[in-house]
């Protein structure tokens, strides 16, 4: 970041302070549920410590948040702790659903729409002191720099995955051939990994090359950001964070600042980022069941199963003989086997979306059948719930390896999906010979995660230090 940009940022922050307002941060988020959740939760933690924070994404995301979560767009926002959080979205006009089209649209229309959003803040008397972006929109830091605004990045995956991307982008590691599952690669601070454990976005067979390029571009230009936050916590990934400091590249890797797990904290759930309205009766249904009796299954907001896989999952859950709460998104509900809902009535609850963090901390939940997206991974770590790990692609592959092999919190469910394998995996996680050890490990990691985000914990201190630095820049101007 150049001196002129830094000076302009301080001037903007000073203008906000002089007008009687706190420094103003703007978080710009890639339009996906797995990005909205951690970005919004970071926004709330920063706001609670005394800043004004605007959360933004595409106009389509704004419409979904208004409909599903009731957020109010524009104005002064909502008081939160010592600050405020508000919502204002890009005027980008995209309403499609194809991923490649979305990535092309963001790359072409996004920078101009974002520059215009920043200009609107200036004109409204709330100049932006700092922009926080995330990996799938690497142009955010460039737009901020052009406007003379400091920037930060929130890496929404693990430190381990960041290290894998960083080493690959800078030519510091070669992965084994995809068909050599016995080969192992090693990186400083990480356990030995097979090619099946690395993010699939880095493999030749990856079909999502537009996402891969966006992430790699973020890695290549990440030194433009003043701060690099990561949705993790020091105690969970200390070795990889420490090892990155010793990597010899020019420029060197940025220091990663763990600020997670970015989970809902008590008192801030009134402002939520659900893009699908969560079913209202999940918790009440769980209340009717004894402790550690219910299997919770959710494959997140993006994973799509075939009709055959949905049938195998359905029959597998039913065959466990245990009550189950299963999230089947509206786009997949028609794939349920005929008569299934009637057959499991009273024992199985199928919902389009759930208040997942409330579900995971409920004492009735025995295990979590999960795709191992990083948000779900951290949520189950924080809740202390063992897992049945069923990763599909991307960083899910790495997350599953860590949950099962490193944290000792669960078992794997491998493809191809079969109903008997679902039943056996659930049985192993809930009542198998290693189930007690899994619960103990999960409980220990839950305590560590919650200590990190509690007042004075490692992640809380990192957020506090960032807020104080932003305030100090404004005060010195």
UniProtKB/TrEMBL annotation:
Family, as annotated: Belongs to the UDP-glycosyltransferase family.
SUPFAM superfamilies, per the entry: UDP-Glycosyltransferase/glycogen phosphorylase
A family per Pfam: UDPGT
InterPro entries per UniProt: UDP_glucos_trans, UDP_glycos_trans_CS
Gene Ontology MF terms: quercetin 3-O-glucosyltransferase activity; quercetin 7-O-glucosyltransferase activity
Claim: Glycosyltransferase is one of the keywords in the record: yes
EC number(s) given by UniProt: 2.4.1.-
The entry's keywords: Glycosyltransferase, Transferase
Gene source species: Oryza rufipogon
Keyword Ribosomal protein on entry: no
CDD domains xref list: GT1_Gtf-like (cd03784)
PANTHER family the record matches: GLUCOSYL/GLUCURONOSYL TRANSFERASES, UDP-GLYCOSYLTRANSFERASE 84A1
Domain of life: Eukaryota
Protein name per its UniProtKB record: Glycosyltransferase
């Amino acid at each position: 970041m150049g001196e002129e940009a830094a000076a302009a940022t301080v001037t903007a922050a000073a203008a906000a302070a002089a007008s009687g307002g706190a420094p103003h941060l703007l978080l710009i988020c890639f339009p996906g549920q797995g990005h909205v959740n951690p970005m919004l939760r970071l926004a709330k933690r920063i706001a609670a410590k005394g800043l004004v924070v605007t959360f933004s994404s595409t106009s389509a995301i704004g419409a979904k948040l208004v409909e599903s979560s009731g957020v109010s767009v524009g104005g002064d926002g909502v008081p939160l702790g010592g600050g405020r959080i508000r919502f204002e979205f890009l005027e980008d006009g995209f309403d499609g659903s194809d991923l490649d089209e979305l990535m092309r649209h963001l790359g072409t229309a996004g920078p101009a729409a974002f520059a215009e959003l920043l200009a609107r803040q200036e004109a409204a008397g709330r100049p932006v002191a700092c922009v926080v972006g995330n990996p799938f929109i690497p142009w955010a830091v460039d737009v901020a720099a052009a406007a003379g605004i400091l920037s930060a990045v929130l890496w929404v995956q693990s430190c381990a995955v960041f290290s894998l991307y960083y080493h690959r982008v800078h030519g510091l590691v070669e992965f084994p051939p995809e068909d050599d599952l016995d080969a192992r690669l090693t990186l400083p601070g990480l356990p030995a990994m097979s090619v099946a454990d690395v993010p699939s976005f880095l493999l030749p067979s990856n079909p999502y090359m537009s996402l891969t390029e966006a992430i790699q571009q973020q890695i290549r230009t990440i030194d433009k950001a003043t701060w690099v936050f990561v949705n993790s916590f020091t105690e969970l990934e200390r070795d990889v964070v420490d090892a990155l400091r010793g990597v010899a590249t020019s420029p060197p890797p940025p220091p990663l600042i763990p600020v997670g797990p970015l989970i809902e904290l008590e008192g801030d759930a009134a402002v939520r980022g659900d893009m699908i309205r969560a079913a209202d009766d999940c918790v009440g249904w769980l209340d009717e069941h004894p402790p550690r009796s219910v299997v919770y299954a959710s494959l997140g907001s993006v994973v799509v199963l075939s009709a055959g896989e949905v049938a195998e999952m359905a029959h597998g859950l039913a065959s466990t003989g245990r009550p189950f709460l299963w999230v089947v998104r509206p786009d997949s509900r028609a794939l349920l086997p005929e008569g299934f809902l009637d057959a499991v009535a009273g024992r199985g609850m199928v919902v389009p979306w759930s208040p997942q963090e409330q579900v995971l901390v409920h004492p009735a939940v025995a295990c979590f059948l999960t795709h191992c997206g990083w948000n779900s991974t951290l949520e189950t770590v924080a809740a202390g719930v063992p897992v049945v790990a069923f990763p599909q692609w991307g960083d899910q592959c790495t997350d599953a390896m860590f949950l099962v092999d490193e944290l000792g919190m669960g078992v794997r469910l491998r493809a191809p999906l079969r109903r008997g394998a679902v039943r056996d995996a659930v049985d192993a996680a809930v009542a198998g010979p290693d189930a007690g050890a899994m619960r103990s490990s999960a409980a220990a990691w839950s305590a560590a995660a919650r200590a990190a985000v509690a007042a004075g914990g490692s992640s809380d201190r990192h957020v506090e230090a960032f807020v104080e630095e932003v305030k100090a820049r404004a005060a010195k101007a």
